Please model this.
Amino acid sequence: MRESDKQVSGLEAYVERGDFSRYYGIQYGDPRGAWPWKEPVLGALLPNIAGTVLEIGSGGGRWGQYIMEHADKAILVDGTPASEAAIRGHFTVPQSTEFIVSPDGLLPTVPDASVDFVWSFDTFVHFDADLFWTYCKEVARVLRSGGQFVLYYAWDRDAAKPFFRYYDPKQVEAKMKRLGLKHQDEDAIVMDARLSTWKRSQRRKR
Ligand SMILES: C[S@@+](CC[C@H](N)C(=O)[O-])C[C@H]1O[C@@H](n2cnc3c(N)ncnc32)[C@H](O)[C@@H]1O
Model:
């Protein structure tokens, strides 16, 4: 079973039991409480929420709660409908919010160049290469010129997390560049993984 599918099953089990305290990934820290990495993570999220914002791996709404509150439109994507059930059960969901279930990483209902900001935390660390790069290609397609993508991914070093999938930052950077996504600034290292920002370069006029 893919690691990402295990994450899906975990979320579905928590939702079935109604155990909000352990919804993925609330158990790793509720951003409203005290949390060791709160500052860099919220610092990469909150100032970027504007216009249409898409989150990959919305889980129990740990970050989606802010996106729904501050974006004109939130698009919340997960591998299971349990994410929408969890979020609707605990947060106010604006009418403009769109929920997408995408086990394969494709986003066919999202038009090209229609999204201002993409956020994904604690999710790509569980993705195999197929899912990782399918989503990145979709992000490159849906982001408008100058739009940003904040991605949390595990990197190529000896970490004590065998269930993470590790990616070499140099290779990630090269592949992202080919997709038109340019690495911005320094990465923050949070829980041994990278929180990195990518900017969609100017699209060619047809
Ligand atoms: C550890 S949880 C993190 C949830 C949330 N991002 C957070 O930080 O609280 C990992 C999430 O990845 C989701 N996931 C698994 N497969 C996915 C897929 N194909 N597309 C999007 N999300 C997926 C799981 O359902 C789960 O919500």
Remarks:
- The first strand starts at residue 52 and ends at 56.
- The helical segments are 3-17, 38-45, 64-70, 82-90, 129-142, 169-178.
